[in-house]
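Exam prep: given the inputs below (a chain plus glycine), describe the expected output before reading on.
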Amino acid sequence: MDLKYLNLRSVISMADSNRTSRRTFLKTTAMAGLGASVLPGFDAAASLPLLNSVKSAGPVVISSRNGQQTVLKALELIRSGSDALDAVVAGVNLVEEDPNDTSVGYGGLPNEDGVVQLDSCVMHGPTCRAGGVAAIEGIMYPSRVAKLVLERTDHVLLVAEGAVRFAKMHGFPIENLLTERARLEWVKWKEGLSNKDDYLPPHGPDDKNIGQNIEPPEMHYGTIHCSAIDLAGNISGVTTTSGLSYKIPGRVGDSPIIGAGCYVDNLVGAAGSTGRGEANLENLCSFMIVERMRMGDSPQQACLNVCERVADHTKVAHLLDDQGRPNFGLNFYALSVDGRVGGAGMWGSNGSFAVADSNGSRLEPMAYLYKR
Ligand code: GLY
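Solution:
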């Protein structure tokens, strides 16, 4: 049977039933219809005739869990006619300006010098264009600058001082993004780093082992990802972060890198990530998730399969637990062109991600490769 004559939804639901049957399905159809490799690999061209005929299920917005207001804002804008890219950027702006989210924008935990350095990228499905900024300082809305890189340059990625100059040229004010809460966490981190340097945490005159009872500082990779389908059926995505807390100045994570922190294909869907950026950078997971959806994975299956790939590719001892499993967190979120959503992560038990669509807004459960 030729794949072209199958209805995509039935193909996907066949493929969804479980991983084993998906592999069998791909193997069978690839052999019978395409005369191609038996491997469940990425044969994009073979899928395109199918995917061209897919119609979106209406506006849908997904986000990491910290985007519960983000998805509502983006959906409201889409319903009033916004392009998905404008809507997702406006949605994550709420978190970028929120001093209480210490993983994104204003209020984000700083680098080891106490400076908040931000990363972001956007991708616009209908034009296949992307923009990003990395290690940008003093700009509260890096996602807006990333969108301007897409719209007003012939480049994809601007970094550090050049990205700041570009933002200033477009009228962005330079602001102090270090909140008092983030500064105090950074001081706690710096003072607790070593008992061989001259920084001392708070102590009394009789303390011999200074700092032994101090609570560890807040630390994380953080981030928000949001992607959406608009009224025209077009898909866009954005990811924005303050990155790894207390990072080496200049460290860039996955969030501003297209294919890692975010990827969109208007014929297939979108994917994005939060968590340990280094593992994502070494595997280009968002691109891989979209390619897996192109080949028939559901959004959740694609996210889980990519977690498995990252686990397979994690080889060095300091990143493995005593059972040989990755010892870090990494989460993925995916949206398919026909409106299905999914999320999966390396470790967890009852995590969730945010969704807003015609059924209202809600948290959906994440799937995990390893339970804790
Ligand atoms: N995922 C955020 C980072 O690693 O910077």
